[in-house]
């Protein structure tokens, strides 16, 4: 026992245990948080496939280093800088979307609940919800195609410029008249900010998501496309089937009824006073909005 005790005393005495400070723990948590969210983001983009290819190349480089293959290592050293630039160019859409999400003020305001004061009924009134829902249901009955984009925090100004200024109060009659066949404003998207229609005949970016069904046309692909680059909610009425769909955060919810549509609109309406009264229910609604 004395020999064992002596062994541990001699060896443990030479070990140096670093002092862990509170800031070190916080730093580890921040890095773990960032790595986790980067991996979650990469899982749903083309970067995931690219990472698997990079891992294969990294293993090949390690083997080259172990066996001292100088020519291969020289090529790697000279091509590395060009490869980084090529990756940035290839992943430009995904990197842009990630930076836009990082710059979204909801990231911090949602946690701190800042900026809700003075909004009254929220982003838009209950009357606007009823008018939009009524218009979509009526257009669906007669199979009138429609594309309605509702702005949240990300500005839709770059899309407003592609259309014709309207600046009118949201009413079901006006929305139905805009999308009526053979009218000057029926082609393109209508953009809504608050309780007003700000622009019509707007052009939207088309999504390149391969998961979107081939039976869906340009209108649905445009609705998903604008939801991928902004936090807007888009309502699509199909001209072929007469069904109502909702695009939000790059996902498409198909065949919704009027109650479901009102529910989604109330979530993004974001009434601050109501949420404070509901307590936990308000937090639940905000989380559900992120899952749309």
Structure description:
- 57% of the residues lie in helices and 12% in strands.
- The chain is of the alpha+beta class and 292 residues long.
- Strand 3 and strand 4 (196-202) form a beta hairpin.
- It folds into two domains: 13-103, no CATH class; 126-291, DNA integrity scanning protein, DisA, N-terminal domain (YojJ-like (1), CATH 3.40.1700.10.
- It has helices spanning 2-14, 22-43, 47-66, 70-90, 92-103, 106-112, 126-141, 157-160, 172-179, 218-229, 258-269, 272-278, 280-291, and strands spanning 146-150, 164-169, 189-193, 196-202, 233-237, 244-248, 251-253.
- A seven-stranded mixed beta sheet has the order 2-4-3-1-5-6-7, sandwiched between helices.
- The radius of gyration is 27 Å and the shape is elongated.
Beta-strand percentage range = 5-15%
CATH class of the largest domain reads Alpha Beta
- According to CATH, the fold-level topology of the largest domain is YojJ-like (1
CATH structural architecture of the largest domain: 3-Layer(aba) Sandwich
> How confident overall, as mean pLDDT?
78
Features:
7-stranded mixed β-sheet, 292 residues, alpha+beta, 7 strands, disordered C terminus, 2 domains, 57% helix, single chain, YojJ-like (1
Q: What does the secondary structure layout of this molecule look like, with pairings?
A:
Blueprint: H1 2-14, H2 22-43, H3 47-66, H4 70-90, H5 92-103, H6 106-112, H7 126-141, E1 146-150, H8 157-160, E2 164-169, H9 172-179, E3 189-193, E4 196-202, H10 218-229, E5 233-237, E6 244-248, E7 251-253, H11 258-269, H12 272-278, H13 280-291
């Amino acid at each position: 026992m004395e020999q064992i005790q002596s062994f541990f005393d001699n060896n443990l005495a030479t070990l140096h245990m670093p002092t862990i400070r509170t800031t070190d723990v916080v730093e580890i948590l921040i890095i773990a948080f960032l790595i986790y969210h980067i991996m979650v983001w990469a899982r749903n983009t083309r970067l995931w496939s690219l990472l698997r290819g990079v891992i294969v190349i990294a293993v090949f480089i390690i083997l080259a280093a172990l066996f001292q293959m100088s020519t291969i290592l020289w090529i790697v050293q000279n091509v590395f800088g060009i490869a980084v630039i090529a990756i940035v160019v290839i992943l430009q859409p995904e990197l842009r979307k990630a930076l836009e999400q990082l710059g979204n003020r909801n990231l911090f305001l949602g946690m701190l609940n800042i900026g809700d004061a003075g909004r009254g009924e929220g982003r838009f009134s209950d009357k606007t919800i009823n008018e939009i829902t009524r218009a979509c249901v009526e257009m669906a009955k007669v199979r009138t195609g429609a594309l309605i984009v509702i702005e949240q925090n990300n500005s839709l100004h770059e899309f407003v410029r592609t259309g014709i200024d309207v600046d009118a109060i949201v009413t079901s009659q006006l929305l139905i008249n805009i999308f009526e066949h053979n009218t000057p404003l029926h082609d393109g998207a209508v953009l809504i900010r608050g309780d007003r229609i700000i622009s019509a005949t707007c052009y939207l970016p088309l999504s390149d998501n391969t998961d979107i069904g081939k039976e869906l046309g340009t209108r649905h692909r445009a609705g998903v496309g604008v939801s991928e680059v902004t936090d807007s909610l888009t309502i699509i009425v199909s001209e072929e089937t007469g069904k109502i769909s909702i695009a939000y955060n790059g996902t498409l919810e198909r065949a919704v009824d009027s109650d479901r549509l009102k529910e989604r609109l109330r979530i993004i309406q974001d009434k601050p006073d109501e949420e404070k009264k509901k307590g936990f229910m308000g937090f639940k609604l905000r989380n559900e909005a992120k899952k749309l």
